[in-house]
Design brief:
Length: 376
């Protein structure tokens, strides 16, 4: 019996829900969920739990209640057809004798890119593609960007008052948000590959840039953008570099004498070309992408956030809005730099815009739409 279209969408929605559970552990692999159905009922399900672990299809087959022969497979991404850290999923599905595979989208990885679907069809498996494709594409946008452009997904994050200030005229910013909002921000650190700040933030706030709530899904590399290499050797980032990876990007002409002490503390120094008064952010992102970093979080300050914004390098924003008014013409705004010359040229947040109350304030999460993806 073939499931109705609403039922099929429901099964794929379940697969997408499962796939999202792998966030922070599966990368740089894609987030994938899989549901096995027979007679209109789920008989097995799974998701890609961690990089190097079993893929979603194999997990679902292992958890299947009864034989999978003739079952319908709902999977959020085209099954892989090559041996990497695990055997090809296409082989497992063919061996199990599944009758039909519904994939939400093709895999943009050149090693797959339709080959997985052809392998299944050649084995007599009915294959369809495109059910909830938009949702699947949104879920795996960071993986798609890394695969196609060799760069990580860039999230800009800041905390601000109702009048858009991230610090007072004296530079004080502790604390604009309350404890619950700060905990939420730290949880995001615990699922990304890198947290990026400018050297000004290091010198002003001496941050650790770590996740100190719950059990982080991964340990983010702390990245400092420091054109002239002014990072103090006594900074907490430097003192903890032996335990937590710390990378400092500087200009190409910084003398070796200035890098030595930081390198002795186990900081990794990356020299990249300059772009105007600062570093080439393109070169920074390409370096991170070459290390298979999928998601990076830019925390500021305003000059760094503004540079990513001005150059169209941001894909997503996380804004923590506190019920405060700071005022002052010299107080810092979230996005420094030039900004857009007219309202018509402003970057609009893409739907869906997610906003929810946290503690005393509000958290807004949204993507900057296709224009940001194409420009970055």
């Amino acid at each position: 019996m073939t499931a109705s279209m609403p039922a099929e969408a429901g099964f794929m929605q379940r697969a997408l829900h499962l796939a999202a559970r792998g966030q922070g552990r599966a990368e740089p692999n894609p987030l994938v969920g899989c549901v096995l159905v027979r007679g209109g009922k789920i008989i097995g399900e799974g998701y890609h739990r961690r990089f190097g672990g079993p893929h979603a299809e194999v997990e679902a087959l292992r958890r299947c209640k009864g034989p999978a022969k003739g079952a319908i497979i709902y999977v959020t991404l085209e099954p892989c057809c090559f041996a990497g850290k695990t055997p090809p999923c296409t082989d497992a599905l063919i061996e199990a004798g599944v009758g039909r595979v519904l994939a939400a989208m093709r895999d943009p990885n050149p090693r797959v890119a339709g080959r997985g679907l052809r392998v299944l069809r050649a084995a007599g498996v009915r294959v369809e593609v495109g059910l909830l494709q938009r949702e699947a594409t949104e879920l795996n946008a960071p993986y798609i960007k890394l695969t196609q452009r060799g760069r990580p997904w860039v999230i800009l994050k800041w905390a601000q008052s109702l009048d858009g200030k991230i610090a007072t005229r004296t530079g004080d910013s502790k604390w604009i948000t309350d404890r619950r909002m700060r905990a939420q921000a730290q949880r995001t650190r615990g699922r990304v590959d890198a947290v990026i700040v400018g050297v000004g933030t290091v010198m002003a706030d001496d941050p650790l840039l770590t996740c100190r709530v719950g059990r982080p899904r991964r340990v983010a590399v702390r990245v400092v953008l420091d054109t002239r290499l002014r990072t103090p050797p006594q900074a907490r980032l430097v003192k903890t570099a032996r335990r937590i990876p710390t990378w400092i990007f500087c200009g190409p002409r910084v003398p070796r004498s200035r890098t030595k002490r930081l390198e002795q503390a186990d900081c990794v120094i990356h020299r990249v070309q300059r772009d105007g008064a600062g570093l080439s952010l393109d070169a920074v992102l390409e370096t991170l992408g070459a290390r298979a970093m999928t998601n990076v979080l830019v925390e500021g300050g305003g000059r760094v956030l503004g540079s990513f914004f001005d150059q169209g390098l941001a894909d997503e924003v996380h804004i923590y809005q506190a019920p405060l008014l700071i005022g002052g013409r010299y107080a810092s705004g979230a996005l420094g730099g030039l900004g857009v010359p007219s309202v018509r040229e402003a970057l609009r947040l893409a739907e869906p815009i997610r906003a929810r109350r946290i503690g005393e304030g509000w958290f807004v999460q949204a993507r900057l739409g296709s224009c940001a993806i194409h420009r970055s």
